[in-house]
Design goal:
Layout lengths: L8 H37 L14 E3 L3 E3 L2 E3 L2 E3 L4 H9 L9 H26 L1
Antiparallel strand pairs: 1-4, 2-3
Length: 127
């Protein structure tokens, strides 16, 4: 019967555990990077009014990463100060046509956001 000894297994297990923790951090960082791209597009696609109230472009935020059964996601869009007006703009009203700046921004920024996310992932791999 042959005997063999494996060394370094404990170190490998620790490395795999760290890789798992780092992967989640990198995933969150990548989502944020993609969210910032979409935010930039939303700001450029919404008009600034001359009224004296909170403006949409000053109140677009990138939220924290969330997770559901379908995967991770991040919310990008107007915050609570202006959310009600964003809904009117995006979908229109009985007296106003829709100006879907959110959908438009997602379409415009999709490839750029994916590139930003890919850059974060590749940077983490190269470290």
């Amino acid at each position: 019967m042959a005997n063999f000894e494996v060394s370094g297994l404990d170190d490998a297990i620790v490395s795999f555990d760290q890789l798992g923790e780092n992967a989640e951090k990198v995933e969150n960082k990548a989502l944020k990077a993609g969210g910032e791209v979409i935010k930039k597009h939303q700001i450029s696609n919404v008009n600034r009014s001359k009224k004296s109230h909170p403006h949409m472009e000053d109140n677009i935020t990138v939220g924290r990463p969330n997770e559901t059964d379908e995967g991770k996601f991040i919310n990008v869009g107007p915050n609570n100060k202006v959310k009600h007006r964003a809904i009117w703009l995006e979908y229109g009203t009985s007296k106003m046509p829709a100006y879907p700046f959110i959908d438009k921004s997602c379409e415009q920024g999709e490839n750029e956001a994916l590139s930003a996310m890919e850059k974060v992932f590749l940077g983490a791999i190269e470290e």
